[in-house]
Automatic annotation (TrEMBL):
Superkingdom, natural source: Bacteria
Protein family membership: Belongs to the universal stress protein A family.
Protein name per UniProt: Nucleotide-binding universal stress UspA family protein
Native organism: Isoptericola halotolerans
UniProt domain UspA: residue ranges: 45-118
Family matches, as Gene3D superfamilies: HUPs (3.40.50.620)
Length: 119
């Protein structure tokens, strides 16, 4: 069982990573970080690994295919994820009527609970 989170360089992605690290520590679980694309920059992954090592969290980076919603759901299913952590962005009044399609897919298809955070 592990905590699953996507790796995105957006404010929402960074907040999701912070929350996922916190959840992994509290639950004493490993963290599975799904990269946002199939070929993330090596220096980006190095920086991520350094931050996670400094946080004292057991972790593994899982390569993504480019469809982060599918990758998160698949990883959680394949690895028996205990929790998926996602970041949500603030939306306009009209946009609030509909969640982002990726977030909606994750919420509907996830094999485990989903924690949604916002910056």
């Amino acid at each position: 069982m592990a905590i699953v989170v996507g790796h995105l360089g957006t404010p929402e992605g960074r907040e999701a990573l912070v929350a996922a690290v916190s959840e992994a520590r509290q639950r004493e679980k490993a963290l599975l970080v799904v990269s946002s694309g199939s070929n993330p920059a090596p220096e980006e992954l190095e920086a991520l690994a350094g931050r996670l090592a400094d946080a004292g969290v057991e972790h593994r980076v899982v390569p993504g295919t480019g469809d982060l919603a599918d990758d998160l759901v698949r990883t959680a299913s394949d690895e028996h994820g205990e929790l998926i952590v996602i970041g949500l962005r603030r939306r306009s009044p009209v946009g609030k009527l509909i969640l982002g399609s990726g977030a909606q897919r994750i919420l509907l298809e996830a094999p485990c609970p989903v924690l949604a955070v916002k910056p």
